[in-house]
Amino acid sequence: MNKNIKEKINTLWVNSEVTALLQEFLYQLRSILLEKFIGLYVGGSIANSSFNPNTSDIDCYIVTSAHLCENTITQIEIMHNQLYSSQLPYAKKVEASYISQIELWDFNPEKSRPYFNEGKLYQAPYNSNFIIELFMLRNKGFAISGPPIKNLIQEISTQDLQLAIKRNLYDYWQVMLFDLVKLSRSDYQVFAILTMCRTLYSIEKGDIASKIGAAKWVIDKYNIWEDLITKALAWEPDLELNKLNETQQFIKYVLDKNL
């Protein structure tokens, strides 16, 4: 691998095992996409310098020169399955969105993209949540390889960000409030609690903070939720949270406040 790329990956706020995973992922992507490869970018907690090796995902965005044909998508699926089942640490943490350069610039949330998560590759709709991801990616994302991400994504205004967050509340969380299958899981309770913290922060501030930063801000501003949020921040994958009712109440509070 190019020495400059190794040096760029090493500047990320992650450990050496994540670095090795990203290096291997980049090599595989280039081998499959060839001249269609434009860039590999990371967002999420890594871009926010808040990566937690126990709970964080590795949010990857692969930009291509054109839409991918079925044969290429099949090759990508095989590659992801092999990576997912490999012995590389954090391989199961990779989430990957594939988006063409044209579609990224003229973004339409009604469309879909090839998306890999939790061992499956499928066509996933963007929805309003992807606007939130693009805001984070454009302002804080990191190029593993490729041109600066700001050259590929049009500026997203504060108003558009806040509108997307409110739409996501309505489209996703209003329904999720009653999904007891997911909300009964401790990991999903933590996800919901910290996402609600970020939602409150972003709607008021017009920006995106790390989940930890947003959680601390909410604790200071809305101290009635301090115990719930503190427990979510301290959660580890081998622990039970058992905060279903409180999590539902918090989601409902955020919904009532913003819809």
Automatic annotation (TrEMBL):
Catalytic activity entry: streptomycin + ATP = 3''-O-adenylylstreptomycin + diphosphate
Domain annotation Polymerase nucleotidyl transferase: ranges: 27-80
Keyword annotations of the record: Transferase
Stretch forming the signal peptide: none
EC number assigned by the record: 2.7.7.47
Adenylyltransferase AadA C-terminal domain boundaries: 172-251
GO molecular function: aminoglycoside 3''-adenylyltransferase activity
Name of the featured protein: Aminoglycoside (3'') (9) adenylyltransferase
The species this protein was found in: Legionella sainthelensi
Taxonomic path: Bacteria, Pseudomonadati, Pseudomonadota, Gammaproteobacteria, Legionellales
